[in-house]
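task queued by scheduler; priority normal; single chain, no ligands, no partner chains; default sampling; output format set to structure tokens
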Amino acid sequence: MAQFFKPQKRNKSVSKTLSKTLRAQVSALDHQARAVIRGEGSKKQTRFIMGALPGEVIQYKTTGKHSGTLERILEPSADRRDAPCKYYDQCGGCDFQHVAESYQLGHKQQVVEELFQKFGVFDSATESLPWQAPLVSEPTRYRRRVRLATRWLGKEQKLLIGFREAQSHQIVAVDDCLVADEGLLQAVNRLYPVLNTSSIATKLGHLEAIRTNKPVILLRITDSLPKDALQSLGSWQAEHNIDIWLQSENELTPLNNAGLPFDTSIDGDKLYFQPGDFLQVNGGINERMVQQAIDWLAPEKTQRVYDFFAGIGNFSIPLARRSKSVLAVEGVYRMAKQTLSNAEANGLNNLTPLSADLNDISASDLKNPADLWCLDPARPGAEGVMTLLKKLKPEQRPSRIVYVSCAPDTLARDLAIIAGLKSDKKSSDYRITKLCTVDMFPQTHHIETMVCLERAS
């Protein structure tokens, strides 16, 4: 389902009252890579500032009770580098380019460990976590999907396309993106003359460029396009061999019967999807992540698997090739149906899709217990699946779980629930046997983590 950008509303009266320029030294980074400023005096108010590093002395302007914006680096850290992207100071897409990739990786692992400690997943005073080497990405040109904001400037009769500034309506016009596949912005630039007309631009909400087996451009439209505009888009599509899809509030339509794009699994299977379906942005890392999930779960032909948050079958299809059966559980009916189509198209008959509310799923929805579980939830995490796990009898619980997370705070919350499952009331049923960070989003604060848990018995 498409998610639309909604900038946070700012309380003008509060901002006006509190706004002042201050000087301070940064004490730490939080899990969003924001600089932490510890207040002094009786109030000891903590503030969070994007763009600064521990140890730096900075000048910043307050923008709210606990926030501020960086104005100057007075004493830079030795870890600071010049951002490689020319748009970095304006664009809100990346927020961690001011340090090297090795620093980014180290910080992200530290964040995961600190959150695990905070939520009681482990005690650093008495135990250590079984860290594995991180799955490392190319630091640039890794994105195979980008979303661009648009705005029609009526007075200038010009379409603006680019990325939004952080928490702002303002658009930074770009002609390239350092973390995107080169072909994506090139395709958008070639399409620009067609889009830069009032008949199309006034009805354009945003656009998305995707590249798997071929480039695809998804145009989010707020009203029907006139016939001549559709003809212009169709002619461009035929000339450039780049498919265009139109997405309105209630409908997704391929222009001139454009075919479904597909991703390729680790076995060479084709995973078809509709533009707008969830697709990991980093194709190279995704392949390595799926392979590692297979290695950690180590499925056998006698074992059943549950794949929760299955999407279009990213994990389900490879797991089905290696196990007795897979139940692919997905909250979006269309994607659950697509997973079945993908299984059938690749000659698999041991995969069953289930469309269910993963926040309120029960054992009766799932039929036979599974030996192995795979989870790949969105940022809110998998609390509903954790509740299900708690309610199962010990003999119905899986022997091994691989949890892929894109939000370390909800991961820590969910693992704390698993850590609390104790059949003998003395030790947890599960222990973490492997974990690593996954460099899915270089140059940003976003953290992807993989964890493998095994039944202690």
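post-processing summary
- Residues 145 and 417 are 34 Å apart (CA to CA).
- The first strand starts at residue 21 and ends at 25.
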